[in-house]
Give the backbone structure.
Amino acid sequence: MVFEKIINWLRQPKNFGKILMMPSSFILNLVLIIPFSILIYLGFTNYIPARGIEWWRSDIVGLTNFIKVIGDERFLWALLRTIIFVFTVVPIEFLLGLGIALLFLGNFKGKKIFTSIILYPMMVPWITVGLAFFLLFLDFGPVNSIILKPIFGETATISWYRDPILAFLTVMLADIWQWTPLMFLILYSGLVAVPERLIEAAKVLGASETQILKRIRLPLIKPLIIVALIIRSLEAFKVFDTIFIMTGAGGPGTATETISCYIYKLSIQYSNLSYASAASLIILIMIALVTRVAIKPLAVKPE
Amino acid sequence: MNFKQILRYILLIIVALWTLGPVVWMISLSLKPPAEWYSANIIPKKLILDNYINLFNSSVPIGGTYFMTSIAEAITVPYINSLIIASISTVFAVLIGFCTAYGVSRYKAGGTFTLFFTLLTRMLPGATFVAPLLVYYSTFGLIDTHIGLILLYTAVTLTYAIWILKGYIDEIPLEWEEAALLEGAAPWTVITHVTFPLIRGGILASALFIFILNWTEFLFALVLSVTKAITLPVQISLYASAVGRMYGSQAACGLIATIPMVILGYTIQRYLVTGFTFGRVR
Amino acid sequence: MAKLFVKNLRKVFGELEAVKGISFNVDEKETLCLLGPSGCGKTTTLRCIAGLEIPTSGEIYINSTLINDLPPQKRGIGLVFQDYAVFPHMTVYDNLAFGLQVRKMEKSKIDSKVKEIARLLDLENVLQRYAKRLSLSEIQRVAIGRAIAVDPEILLLDEPLSNLDARTREKMRTELKEIQMKVGITSVYVTHDQLEAMTLADRIAVMNNGLIEQIGKPSEIYDNPKTLFVARFIGTPSMNFIDCSFIEKNGKAIIDASEFYLDVSDISSIIKEKSTTSELILGCRSEDIIIETKKTSPDSIEVEVKFIENLGAKSIYHLGIGEKRILVKTHIIPGIKIGSKVWILFNKNKIHLFDKKTNLAII
């Protein structure tokens, strides 16, 4: 009897819909929303595991942590480095991806093979990418031996990982290697979707390939470009895995320490969980602001 | 015409070399004996498979006694862990994602807060969640457990599952489901017998995509697992430090991790292209 | 102004031979229409002239220049596509100006030219509107304006009216004719609509299956079709066709169509000369047959009215004799209804005879 009642209740669309959503609400609440609340809570406390006090019993210290974070030089430097990273790496990936996409336009023999080759870096786990590039730039690695030695002679061995700027360069290079294919994929599928007719019309009107590119192809895939740039920038901001492997999350010194690395170290190395939480919340607010102010108008306009 | 074609091929080859370079070097390293690790030749003078075999055998010092560095664990356990965790998480994510996507698409259910929130979590660096998750998981004894990671991975990839599957569900004409309902089928039967089979492609695409995300996930596994539930990417990173200068073994290890990806990669290629132009050029 | 010469144009797509070797010329300021059913090769021919397809063999000249090896950009050709292909992300102004901007013309010159074209095509009000917000006929005018803005030597039009509904098509047809007369560019116009061709063309090339069946002025094509296909394709309603045989008996020559016969003694020598067989097809247009209520001449044939189509001012009478059906288009004749018995008289000056084997016209 009760069972039938439940079945009947289930059959009503409204209720059924609610049932459908339950699993996801459950999981999300459990695994994300609760920790998020903890995050906010921790930011206001001074919980340090080493002290031995349980986290829910730690003192609440108000905004102390937040104020400290804002004045923390290392934090600000990490943030700056991350921003420099994003604004260097993403444009390069975009331009290279666009270049390769243009290279792929039209038909030619071996297109499928080349496509597979170009795309596969995306499928390599981040760690392996980090490892691969780590191995490449070792003192006796191929970059030094195969590329530089023949050109500059025996004494030209660069210690990539000892110099702050060079180390940063290698990390950027790894990211570019891994993610240019994604840009290529997005841009290429967009370019291919441009109606052939329009290209033909432009040709008959006298436009050269460059003019067609500038005035027809690119404007028509503008929404796609914006989406690609936004997605990639957000991901690039979070970079961690490759840096962890290549420079031990920040080396030499703090030369390659991005914001993810710093917060990670705060949590794991220094075990200062409250401070880490405060820093995380500040980053959260910044991202939310940037999204609201800069990205939303960009994303809505092309629609 | 001909000059343009030649130029195109030259550029393509340059790009291909750049793309293949790092991996070719890794392959070469992984097949070289320790003596050759410092030399610049790409083709090993002596081909050995020891680097690979030793990975699975923890009793043999990696690299033999040549370097006398610490012995690292065999990678069999992490490999299996990764397989289990990634697969189960993927299944959960796709199933729950399907239900949710269906609910949002057909029943317009789902608060905007939840969806917006999960979108936000994708934007935040993973590191920001390390502190609370550590606290949370240790309180409930979920550190270093398979279930702990599975739950986390499912939650994190759920948004992708919903996003991708919703696109596919929207494509199915409402009329087909309504026809089934009119014939007396319960809503659940409609889903399992009508909608689900029709979007098999979408299910596959999202499953592959999410599996790759789960397989390669590093940060949370690093933080939340120690020995029992350690995943492959974490083990690789340990190799890099523990095994010190055993570059051949490191290279072999890194490559082993890519095998499932390579297999899946060619299957996903087709679906990735359709997936991206899906919601975009509408 | 330019002349266009096409010599032995052939285009093969894999297994399919779309254009099988055609030749034609277009004089200065002349509009030649390529008319034919879908798949006859007319669009392919047009695209070859434009440079969007490379011919398998044959030559194309503008004046005395061979243009086979020139890319579309350098041919000095304007092309109006069937689906217009107007740039949706640009304004009408930019669409019209595109060809000129691409040639790096001075801004002020571009401006005056664009305004001139806009005036000509009645687009002045929408110059600043984005192309994706225009009505269909506005889009069409932008497509035309864009093509002629660059002062092309040759203007090519690919079925520009086929996307429009019947009423708009009529209106645009007359507008196009006006523009043609005003601007006067050598043009090649592709269509499957014979009414369009008859109205807009100076000469028509009727195409079928990759070949040109006949080229000539509209009146020539209409009055003197050279092949069965041309005769059938042109004219609404279609020409009446009756199978018959040519028989000579007792010094008289007749064409025998079982249910009736016609005396053709006066033209029998021509028939004998040009035909390869005695199996012929008699053709006569529906407006070249007279309906009489009484038999007035020995050539009159008795028929029964099977059906009447009322077109307003005229009617089409479906007449039957035996198994054959003959259509006659004429003014409404009072008193005739379905089932009535009437007489028809073929206008002997307007009948056509076709060789059944070769499909070529004899008369």
